[in-house]
Amino acid sequence: MRVRNLLILLLTIVLTAGLAFVVFVGVQQGPYTFRPTYGLVSSVELNGGTAVTLRVEPYIEDLEEDEEKPKADDALVLEAMEMFEKRLDARGFYDITMTREGDDMIRIEMYTDDYEEISDSGDLTQYICEKGILKFYDVEGNYLIDNAAMEPGTADILRYDDMTYMLYFKLSEEGEKAFDKLKEDYGKDAEFIVEYDGVELATRQYSKSIKNGQFAVGLGFTKRETMNVAYQLNTGILNATFHVEQARSAMPTMGESVFMWIMYSALAAIAVTLILLVIKFKGFGLLADLVYLMFAICLIFALAAVRLKLSPSGVAGMAVGMFAFMVMLFAVMNEFKANAETMSIRNAIRAAFRKNNTLLIDLNAVMLIAGVVMAMFEKSPMAEFSSALALSAAVSFVFLYGVLRGMLIVADGAFPKKAKEA
Known about the structure:
single chain; alpha+beta; four-stranded antiparallel beta sheet; 13 helices; 14 strands; 57% helix
């Protein structure tokens, strides 16, 4: 029995060390890297950048004014997220996090201002939310063809002079047929109209725009705007419209150096707590240290698992949760030490939890309820605080009633003599 309990303690220590390594250092297997804390420190408030929340709505071309637009389903939201990812990857925008919120909303965060092409939320939404529908008409307004005129993935830009950039792509077989018919009907100097996402951009001549199955026209756009159109065409048509629910651009309010200072301060506070536990509770203080470290590591892992960003409010929520756990841990251990002098270890454990049941349940319930209520009625800037607080309460309850109680029983089995001397 004693050997088994010793093995359980040893395994717990090894697993705690392993989880700490995974959480803080990360692991890598081939091209895949898993480091939970990376997402925690990538927030707009810490590093500056842009954040926007979009509501997805189905695109209906001929919707009547009094007709209610249907709600986006799962397939449309996932399709929109996939299209956003393609468009952002095409421009090399990799330092971005995209998460789904609710049934029909998408939140996109860009944590750096290194991308000169996207300086605020307006630039971001303008680039990713264009439907990418290209249409051609003859000068009489007759429809010729749409995106099918382009060979997929061939859109690019050509530099005409220092001020003019042209949209280029290879014509598909269907596109060649459509423009050949235009030439037959109106001659080689036939003109056609270019429309993009419902906006008429230019009228161009066949002879100056099409040659050897290749299409090139100037749209009156800047280099960046022309490049955006090319990437949008390459990634395909976006069959949805979007309503901006929330948008903000922020300068770094904390920065990495300040964030690291806060983390070092937190580590110092944890170290002081661990020392006090050992001083006050001796051998069982070491056990309490292990439980406290396990709680801190699992809390950070849980925060990373739900993709919470440690903005200033997120850090505050986590700090409140860890402080509350420390108070509850000291209360239980203090009562346990007093009871262990006059009764068996197991009875002392029961008495300690019985005496502090009201404190443990009430404090965790208050944190959980407060976190849930704030999450319901306060989307920003307290969203991260409420989420961190509610998650701290849930993890705290599990560790106090499950892990701490279990570890004390295991310690009693592993060190029976020392336990009775505590």
